[in-house]
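Hey, quick one: can you model this chain's 3D structure?
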Amino acid sequence: MSDALPADRLAERLAAVLGARPTALTPLSGGCVARVYRADLPGGAAVAVKTGGGTDLTVEAAMLRYLAAHTALPVPAVRHAEADLLVMDHIAAGDPLDDAAQAHAADLLAALHGITAPEFGFAQDTLIGPLRQPNRTSAGWRAFFRDRRLLHMADEAGAAGQLPAATRSRIDDLAGKLDRWIDEPPAPALIHGDMWGGNILCRAGRVAGFIDPAIYYADPEIELAFATLFGTFGRAFFDRYGAHRPLAPGFFEERRDLYNLYPLLVHLRLFGGAYLGDVERVLARFGC
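Sure thing. Here's the predicted structure for all 288 residues.
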């Protein structure tokens, strides 16, 4: 994050953007890619500020604005966006993702997944963390998932020296057999795209906001799968979500692990280490 603005320079930039110099800049938790601060302003208001990370923060701003304009998902309002600076409304939160908040998240995500489009993908490429998500649209989900997600991120991990050639060959093998496990979903559904606990802000048993989106139109099961990868959601979420949108047979038994190959490859590309073993275990499970 060497490109993050130093605190004194950040305060100057915020004064120019907002018309008032912040009275305090407090680092916030998270910020695996960029630095994130709470900026207190004269009069008692506060904003959340993101800087650095080596990505174009206007892409994140565009995703947040799309969600605000087209959905009821609670997201922070964007106040200002430049490539190296994103200013948003600060969301007061910090409570745990308890059963009540999980049930509320299920209501919100079920409604989000009810928003559909003619094709899979999105009008522009988006980001997952600092990494580009290619979103050239496709009429077929299997082809989109294969080419724009699995094989694309395998390319990225390989180029970064994190994916051995033998493992890449196994991914190619699996990519050629997806029709054994994945049917075409009824319609492309809008997803948040990076659904783990660090991106869910909670307060008093409710979801106060979702942050750091990685949006596109997809099979919503890929969102639900990711939400189990790090134990984000449990029974309270899935019981409530299923009441809105019943899950097709085979999700927990097969497709969850298959879809989680994508976020595992993302983490392999970014962090290496133990994630290679996770990728190889999923491949072995599917006979590859």
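One thing worth noting: The chain has two domains: 7-89, 99-285.
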